[in-house]
Amino acid sequence: MKSPELLHHVDEAVQQAKIIDIHTHLYPPRFQDLCFWGIDDLLIYHYLVEELFRSSRVTPREFFALSKPQQADLIWDTLFVKNTPLSEAAAGVVSVMTRLGLDPCQPDLKQAREYFASLDVEQHVQHVLSLAGVSDLVMTNDPFNTQERELWEKDTPYPESFHTALRLDPLLNTWNAAEAAMAAQGYNVYEQLSPVTLAEIRRFLDRWIARLHPVYLAASLPFSFNYPDETPRTLLLREAVFPTCREHRIPFAMMIGVARGVNPEIGEAGDSLGYAEPTAVERIARENPQVRLLVTMLARENQHALCVAARKFSNLMPFGCWWFLNNPSIVAEITRERLELLGTSFIPQHSDARILEQLIYKWAHSRRTIAQALSESYQHLVDDGYPLTREQINRDVERLFSGNFRSWAKLSLPST
């Protein structure tokens, strides 16, 4: 296979691939205030809020006192009219608008707001999924969030293409707050992690698994995360979370590396990252060989160690380029590194989208970058004398964008 033909086949396979987006913060329209979409929500997302403060003299106090439309107007004028939208987050908005037929060079948001106001949101969701090439996505579902819990307890319906993930951040990161929330729901739990309390936590997890049918359990963990240590988290993992995963045969996803509130003055935009201890992941994988682990780490400097750990433990699946890593240059580097160390036995990306339309640009940009990295690896293989076929390319692309997760989570998804 010659180079131009190879590049064409890889790009075609990647562009046509149907994606299972394994980690998002999206909700369907029937989840009401939890469903974010449209131009104002796109613009006031914290990626752009933090850029605003770099490019204007507006203070956080002044900005957060504004209404949502006023905030969006300010960000548009500052980052898209008075400045060139070169950052990945700003370029992403341009990509979304272009693919929706909107002009990203307008002096104001009148055209965009009129367009979104004219939409039927249920139909718009399907249109966005189609534009992004996403057949299925996984939500983030938090039983400690009162608003969301009430929706689940009302059996609020959701589309077949939306799948659930049981999020356990409060349980593992702020046990005191989780204990109070569980006690308020009628669970016989106490601050001290006695056998009775641990049994009640297991009952809590069993109940929410029965209600949600999640494809995995998950937690976002700080960069200071270690295992084992003297915090309640280690005992909760050992005596509640991992046994539950084994019993229900559900994977556990760890997103490691967050530094919360580095600049609390700017709210959600004030979170950052830190280098995490990679041997903690190895110890968890070694201690729990029957638990399938999905792991992504936030610091660029952690990626090589995570790949090496995955070579040693077959129950460890690296996934995605998360948050601050979701920039084309870094995605390309990490994808190349994973291909070199792991072949196709990883999941290259997830969107982490919180605003519906972010799916459009995140997957358009990721497809482009991943195709380039994959083409380079194939070219090296061909140069070394391997007779690569189009069928092999299609097989590999399917594994990367959907098959690996379907197999890891033991899913049979009718919509794919």
3D architecture notes:
The mean pLDDT is 96. The chain has helices at residues 3-16, 39-43, 46-55, 60-64, 68-81, 88-99, 110-117, 121-132, 146-153, 169-173, 175-184, 195-212, 232-248, 278-287, 303-312, 328-342, 358-383, 390-408; strands at 19-21, 134-138, 162-163, 166-167, 217-222, 252-259, 272-273, 293-297, 316-318. By secondary structure, the chain is α/β, with parallel strands linked by helices. Helix 13 links the parallel strand 5 and strand 6 (252-259). The protein has a single domain (3-408), classed as TIM Barrel (Alpha-Beta Barrel), CATH 3.20.20. The protein has 18 helices and nine strands. Helix 8 (121-132) packs parallel to helix 17 (358-383). Helices cover 52% and strands 9% of the residues.
Which tags fit this structure?
single chain; 3-stranded parallel β-sheet; 9 strands; globular
Write the layout of secondary structure elements.
Layout: H1 3-16, E1 19-21, H2 39-43, H3 46-55, H4 60-64, H5 68-81, H6 88-99, H7 110-117, H8 121-132, E2 134-138, H9 146-153, E3 162-163, E4 166-167, H10 169-173, H11 175-184, H12 195-212, E5 217-222, H13 232-248, E6 252-259, E7 272-273, H14 278-287, E8 293-297, H15 303-312, E9 316-318, H16 328-342, H17 358-383, H18 390-408
Parallel strand pairs: 1-2, 2-3, 4-5, 5-6, 6-8, 8-9
Antiparallel strand pairs: 6-7
Helix pairs in contact: 1-17, 1-18, 3-5, 6-17, 8-17, 12-13, 14-15, 15-16, 16-17
